[in-house]
Specification:
- By secondary structure, the protein is an alpha+beta fold.
- Helix content is 36%, strand content 19%.
- The chain has three helices and four strands.
- A four-stranded mixed β-sheet has the order 1-2-4-3, sandwiched between helices.
- A hairpin with a 3-residue loop joins β1 and β2.
- α2 crosses α3.
- It is globular.
- The chain starts with 9 loop residues before the first helix and ends in an 8-residue tail after the last helix.
Length: 114
């Protein structure tokens, strides 16, 4: 099992947002930035518009697990922030996972099999 390297500080999130490179799906937005290292760092953001703390934490857990499953074949060297969109509170795990894998494919972050 791999460790999830997280973005935790506000300035780390702002640095990724300031790159202005993002990809949108129905339930998730992914902001992307190069980090010039050999690993990916990831952050998850769920606003109060989504719901109360129970709902927000559930959505965060779903996004973390979906990322863990789709990140196996990803390229390295990126900082990513996944932000939940308003309809994500009603989404189930499969929908979140489909959205996340679709975003990662759009961003061309899948490693080619050689």
């Amino acid at each position: 099992m791999t460790t999830l390297h997280k973005l935790k500080k506000n300035y780390e999130f702002k640095k990724v947002y300031d790159e202005k490179k993002y990809f949108v799906e129905k339930y998730i937005v992914m902001y992307l930035s190069m980090n010039n290292s050999t690993l990916n760092r990831v952050g998850f953001s769920v606003s109060k518009k989504i719901g109360n703390s129970v709902v927000r934490n559930r959505v965060k857990r779903l996004m973390k697990e979906a990322f863990r499953q789709v990140s196996v074949n990803m390229k390295h060297g990126y900082d990513m922030v996944f932000t939940a969109r308003v309809g994500s509170a009603a989404a189930d795990f499969k929908q979140i996972e489909r959205n996340m894998s679709s975003i990662i494919k759009k961003a061309k972050l899948i490693r080619s099999e050689e």
